[in-house]
Amino acid sequence: MKIGLIDVDGHNFPNLALMKISAWHKARGDDVEWWDGFGQYDRVYMSKVFDETYSPDMPEPLNATEVIKGGTGYGLDNKLPDEIEHVYPDYFLYPDLTKDTAYGFLTRGCPRGCHFCIVAEKEGRRSCHVAELSEWWSGQKNIVLLDPNLLACPDHMRLLQQLIDSGAYVDFTQGLDCRLLTPENIAAINRVKLKQIHFAWDYMKESAAVLRGLNLYRELATRKIHSMYATVYTLVNYDTTMDENLYRIYTLRDLGYDPYVMIYDKPHAPQEIRDLQRWCNNRLIFKAEPDFSKYSQKKWAEKEEVPEQIGLFGEDGMKLSMLPHGGMNNYDRVMCMTPEKLAEFLKKVECRPPWDDAFVKACCYKCKTETVTMTDEPKRTLEVHPCDFADGECPHGSDIAWWLAQRCADNKEVEK
Description:
Blueprint: E1 2-7, H1 16-27, E2 31-34, E3 41-47, E4 64-70, H2 82-85, E5 101-104, E6 107-108, H3 119-123, E7 128-129, E8 142-145, H4 156-166, E9 169-172, H5 183-191, E10 193-201, H6 207-220, E11 231-236, H7 242-255, E12 258-263, H8 271-281, H9 283-288, H10 297-304, H11 330-336, H12 339-346, H13 358-361, H14 365-369, E13 372-375, E14 381-384, H15 399-415
Helix pairs in contact: 4-5
């Protein structure tokens, strides 16, 4: 059979269902490729995660004998057959997004049943173990965990041990339920190699339980990421006032957490809510102006208009120019850019990822200040950054890479 695949939402995040469908068909000897309008297919799979609000549907292809649609964007009553659900994903479908990175679920379902969330209706009001780590991970350096509520699963300590034993960097991308934190599972989390860890504070009525968990984690956590204990998703535009939004943001900041504003029904959100998100989620603005009431959208929009003659690189083409212009350097300029302005700007600059690139390296606080002097075989004296010794991963974290990631997560939020 000739199989065509369509990722209706785009190719900004790996579609796990399509990767499993591809792997299953290839194991049967079928030809699998991304759908092309000029070919002819026996079957085409269309997968869609988001609804029409954020991800418009596309017409069914006419060059296929059979078309199968699936994903939450098409409804909550469809799921993969077990024989496909439990195959090892075909990561080659998204070579750039899955480079040395595995994606998957250890558990499904959530007992919370939040009104803004579809997980309980789609997967059930229990967090159940559905897979071992080895089902979708085979030694990759990074793991992106998609579980909606891992800590609610009775078997979560054993599953955390699997993440510990993997030795991989783990991104708890969907967030851990801070209301379920205990000294025991925090001790296990401390042993996981954390790349990112997220919690959430959605409802004001659950503030006491949320703060109990966050304070406990703050007390027992042994590591910080980007100088903060964790990122905390903060839902706005859903059953909270602006005063309640600001209370949560200021409280999280005071506790040493990074608040990250998530807007419910963003296309219809008022401008004040959008301003709140931009102020909070852009860390440069958030640190420079800690009081939202004093924040001026116009002020920061003007700072983005830096004259073009202030280039990113020096005359040698390698060094980042840090000369200020109006009290603002190039790092500030990039940090203030909107995603559209950043995309336009990057087209003018050839950036080679990740650590041989001055654009990234100059924006790592540690690497800007720490150098090691060494002599190579031709007896040349070299000043080397600590990141040069890292195996593809900056041990300090890159501020610019972090910021770019925040903007991508914002784009993903737009898609939700």
